[in-house]
Amino acid sequence: MLDDLPQGVRLVAVSKFHPSEYIRAAYEEGQRIFGESHEQELRRKVEELPKDIEWHFIGHLQTNKVKYIAPYISMVEAVDSMKLLSEINRQAQRNNRTIKVLLELHIAEEETKYGLSVDDCRELLAAGEWKTLENVRICGLMMMASYTDDAEQIRREMMTASDFFDEVKRDYFADDDSFCERSWGMSHDYPIACECNSTMVRVGSKIFGERVY
């Protein structure tokens, strides 16, 4: 799919707004992880497409939508509050599943981005309530860098996230092998992300072309 990804970096093919036949074509080339951000579109695609696809929810997720995706979502990539984390746990429990999640950081200088500041994330982890949740597994951190042509700014933001990952791993997940994901990098900046210790990049337009609305 993307021939220039180094070893150890996995591709999340961002398939939102793209038709199922595009996803099936990518699947037939060996791609298994796809990213969606609209619950109704995702539900339709889950019914239409192969069952071994690993679906990641990559957009901002409202707590009242969790129940719809809990039966089949593999990972929620953008958890930005304890309230959302608790609801994912509750719905996972109802479906007798464990759902993987990433905590979303807001490091970019753009106000439109969701996510926890580094300090807010420290507070959430220090409070410890997440340790009581048995049906979610915190597997790492995700962030979106500023949408800019300034490669140094992108690199600086991603390295801030990478350094913070190391801190969180050391302080809370030192013995937990499943806390291993650093999800940053999109179509316009994934080569920089690969240099900044990313383990998962979310790429759509470079694979599927422009979106079909």
Describe this entry's structure for a reader.
Helices cover 37% and strands 19% of the residues. It has eight helices and eight strands, in the order βαβαβαβαβαβαβαβα. An eight-stranded parallel sheet has the order 7-6-5-4-3-2-1-8.
How would you concisely characterize the structure shown here?
This protein is an alpha/beta fold. It has helices at 20-28, 39-48, 66-69, 82-94, 118-127, 151-172, 190-195, 205-208; strands at 10-14, 33-36, 54-57, 75-79, 99-105, 136-143, 181-183, 200-203.
Defining key terms:
213 residues, alpha/beta, 8-stranded parallel β-sheet, 8 strands, 19% strand
From the N-terminal CA to the C-terminal CA, the straight-line distance is: 23 Å
Low-confidence stretches: none
Q: Number of DSSP strands?
A: 8
Identify the quaternary structure here.
Answer: single chain
Largest sheet: 8 strands, parallel
Helix fraction? 25-40%
**Integer-rounded radius of gyration:** 16 Å
The run of helices and strands is EHEHEHEHEHEHEHEH
Overall body shape: globular
Q: What strand order characterises the main sheet?
A: 7-6-5-4-3-2-1-8
What percentage of the residues does DSSP assign to strands (E)?
15-25%
Average pLDDT number: 94
Q: In terms of structural class, how would the helical and strand content be classed? A: alpha/beta
How many helical elements? 8
